[in-house]
Amino acid sequence: MEKQSMADPAINMHEEMRRAFALLSGKWKLEIMWLLNQRIYRFGELRKAIPGITQHMLTAQLRELEADGLVDRTVFPEVPPRVEYAITEKARGLGPTMEALSAWWQTYGSSLPQRPTSRGRKASGNET
Q1: Alpha-carbon distance 36 to 61, whole Å?
Q2: Count of C-beta atoms within a 10 Å radius of residue 124
Q3: Residue ranges per domain, the chain?
Q4: Closest to 87 (Cα-Cα) out of 106, 70, 74
């Protein structure tokens, strides 16, 4: 019987992981993916669900996720047009990773230093 290797020596896992990280890197991508893993969202709902994100940045991040095959964008032919965003089957494969991150956070999150959660532009209004 011949020895079989589990890993293909031609595959550089460091490079492959860099590619995987690049798909999800970006200030807001993981948060967008987390939300879309829960349910389908319209653009305005996503924007309200992510404090501090600008319309421009949400659009840019959604376009990148769509181009990478992680998010589906559906435009309904209505007036005004209705657009919905959903996670793709490919991205659903990240579900166990998100669950593991959630479990990790429940175990260790309270022991980590607290950082301000506000990111992006501050909401305009009558603040004192």
Answers
A1: 13
A2: 6
A3: 34-106
A4: 70
Residues whose CB is less than 8 angstroms from the CB of residue 27 and which lie 6 or more positions away in sequence, other chains included: 57, 61, 119, 120
DSSP lists the bridge partners of residue 85 as 41, 73
* Token couple for 98: 């998100």
Phi-psi category of 120—alpha, beta or left, where left has phi over 0 and alpha has psi -120 to 50?
left
Torsion angle (degrees, nearest 10) of CA 66, 71, 72, 77: -80
| Residue 40, CB-side half-sphere exposure with 13 Å CA sphere | 10
Look up the pTM and report it.
0.76
Report the distance separating Cα 123 and Cα 65, nearest Å: 25
Q: Are 68 and 47 spatial neighbours (Cβ–Cβ below 8 Å)?
A: no
* pLDDT tens readout for residues 38-68: 999 999 999 999 999 999 999 999 999 999 9
| 35 CB-contact burial (10 Å; exposed 0-12 / middle 13-18 / buried 19+) | middle
Class of domain 34-106: mainly alpha
